[in-house]
TrEMBL record:
Residue span(s) of domain DinB-like: 48-180
Organism lineage string: Bacteria, Bacillati, Actinomycetota, Actinomycetes, Micrococcales
Designated name of the protein: DinB family protein
Originating organism: Cellulomonas denverensis
Length: 183
């Protein structure tokens, strides 16, 4: 009896998240407990690096590929998403530092999960890529100085960020998904 090739398995999307999470910049998140002012902007890079071992440990779990419910991402899928969050925010930070008030390209996290088949990726490789991407963001953030923290950028929906609020918003996403995976 031969095994079924998992790559031909039909992708079942997770429940889409259509919320505008920018409210976490002013209110504490009731789910994960994150508050935007919990970590000073100058410490977000170090905190980013400090969180990587928790993702590595979660991605090393035997059940990392198993969804807790049919439309809820597995640890693997959350790990792939967080890896891409690090990458997207590194790009957004570079735009903010290199241009005046840039508009960020749209990023559809659900479309990316489907197109890149997060569910079929290798957990060990995702852990390594997540660590590298986290370090790239942290390194870029370490280079921010003085008035650069107040440079702006915006999403297509009109939400405006400073480098400080972008970093806070980013950190909430990373912390929140640790809560989602119980790590």
């Amino acid at each position: 009896m031969s095994a079924v090739d998992p790559s031909i398995r039909q992708y079942v999307p997770a429940e889409p998240d259509g919320k505008d999470w920018t409210w976490v910049l002013v209110d504490r998140c009731p789910d994960c407990g994150f508050g935007a002012d919990d970590v000073p902007a100058g410490q977000i890079a170090a905190t980013t690096r400090d969180l990587v071992p928790r993702y590595r440990a979660a991605l090393n779990r035997r059940d990392a590929v198993v969804r807790p419910a049919p439309t809820v991402w597995s640890v693997l899928e959350y790990g792939a998403h967080v890896r891409d969050v690090h990458r997207v925010f590194t790009e957004r930070l570079a735009l903010m530092l290199g241009q005046d008030d840039p508009q960020f390209p749209n990023w559809d996290q659900d479309a990316t999960a489907r197109a890149d088949r997060y569910d079929l990726q290798d957990p060990g490789r995702v852990a390594d890529e997540l660590a590298d991407a986290a370090d790239a963001f942290a390194t870029a953030l370490d280079r921010v100085q003085g008035a650069q923290w107040q440079r702006t950028g915006r999403r297509s929906n009109g939400s405006v960020f400073t480098v400080t609020t972008l970093a806070e918003y980013y950190l909430h996403d990373v912390v929140h998904h640790l809560h989602d995976i119980g790590a």
